[in-house]
Amino acid sequence: MVSVHLLPSTIPPGALRGGVAVVIDVLRASTTIVHALTHGCAAVIPCGEIDEARTIAARLPRGTALLGGERRGERIAGFDLGNSPGDYTTDACRGKTLVMTTTNGTRALLACLEAETVLIGAFVNFAPTVQRLIHEERPIHLVCAGTDGAISYEDALLAGAFAGRFVDLEHELGNDEAEIARGMWEHVQEIVRSYEALGDRPGEQPPLVRYLRRGKGGRRVVELGLGDDVELAATLNRADCRAVVELARDPLRLVLSD
Fold this sequence. Notes:
Elements lengths: L1 E4 L14 E5 L4 H10 L4 E5 L2 H10 L5 E7 L2 E2 L14 H4 L3 E5 L3 H6 L6 E5 L4 H8 L6 E5 L8 H16 L7 H23 L8 H6 L3 H8 L3 H7 L11 E4 L4 E4 L2
Parallel strand pairs: 1-8, 2-7, 2-8, 3-6, 4-6
Antiparallel strand pairs: 4-5, 7-9, 9-10
Helix pairs in contact: 6-7, 9-10
């Protein structure tokens, strides 16, 4: 059974217990987490608050912590990096532990701790995440982070892509939100397929980039001069990000799944 929760606040009490949660914050936390781990970070420690992140980073062995995150889309003062996935290069990440706090994504993740298994979902690691869940018998919950407490278009699109793929694999949809998100994605998917069938056209943005720019989150990222982040986040199954990211516990941290 696959359900979509368009905001963490819409998850019914106790619904995640015993199930699998896939946390989605396309622009940009989930994309950045996947990018950081596949480019050399040993782990990502998610934090809800700025002071908490600073405290945890200070406790790590000298030279091993990388402080990253944002508020209102902008890098936090005194942090090493913001929330732009492209900044998490191999040179920046190799051997480091990323301590991360963001406006929406890390808080959504921390709202899902009741789930038995927590994964990170992004367009860039879509296929391996689906593959990990292909034979899953526990309930699957697609949890969208949203933007400032409001439903976000780009997160709903990715949730719809997952829902549609799971239906193809004979999973049942568990709520109306899953049906709605799936319908949204089916429309966009047809346009994406038509574009790909015609081949690259110089000077024309790929359709998924255009769609991700439409929502409030996409518009804000572009207004901040970070349009490249949208293009990276809109890359379906990015070659250097094809990995499953899972939440480990005791201590709480995100790692690449075996």
